[in-house]
Amino acid sequence: MTNQIEWAVLEHSRWTLYVAKTSNGLCYVGSPGQSFEEFQAYINKRFPGAVLQENPDSLTPYLQELHDYFLGRRTLFSLPIDVKGTPFQEEIWQALQEIPYGQTVSYSDIATRIQRPAAVRAVGAAIGANPVMISVPCHRVVGKNGAMTGYRGGLELKTFLLELEKAHKENVHAPVSPSMERN
Question: Which residue(s) pair with 7 in the sheet?
């Protein structure tokens, strides 16, 4: 049986991102300006033999959560993700999900959190490999001195996301609209 990856395009303001999911959850949030060929190459590398199927209806709940986040109405994501990496990468991605909305930490903070303080470079590489930007908030990791550092989505998007969270962190709760509730 061939695995199917469903995808759609999220358009919000100046950002256009490819978003994809498996039957188990969100597996990819792309970068602004990414071509379909780059998106397809990523999926082919991570999910060999998978068939890409455009299906905006299937991705509506994910697109709605991302849209609500971009509008400052959501601080947490409630829908499942399906990310596969090395055990180390998955540990880092889990640590990223524990960074509170509106806060930042350094790469060395993450390395310390996972009890590998000397692994700062490896932490950076794992963060860079995060396939579901925004939902797994790698944008909340900055340099030790607070400086903006690399981001797969680009520094413009990273800056936007951090400013969005800073502006809304006091006023926002994690709403779930009735249409988004799972049975």
Answer: 20, 54
Which amino acid, residue 177?
S
Q: Could you say which of 17, 138, 141, 157 is catalytic? A: 138
C-alpha dihedral sign at 53, 54, 56, 60: positive
CA distances in angstroms from 143 to 65, 86, 116, 131, listed in the order given: 28, 24, 17, 21
Kindly indicate the confidence band of residue 172, based on its pLDDT and cuts at 50, 70 and 90: low
- What is the per-residue pLDDT across 5-45, written as a single tens digit (0 to 9) for each? 999 999 988 889 999 999 999 999 999 989 999 999 999 99
Lookup: tokens for 38: 């780059």
- 27 catalytic, yes or no? no
Q: What is the pTM of this model?
A: 0.86
Q: What is the dihedral of CA 23, 96, 91, 61, to 10 degrees?
A: -10
- How much is the pLDDT for 2? 54
What pLDDT is stored for residue 171 in this prediction? 62
Burial letters for 36-59: b for 16+ Cβ neighbours within 10 Å, e otherwise? eeebeebbeebbeebebeeeeebb
Exposure on the CB side of residue 29, measured as CA atoms within 13 A: 26
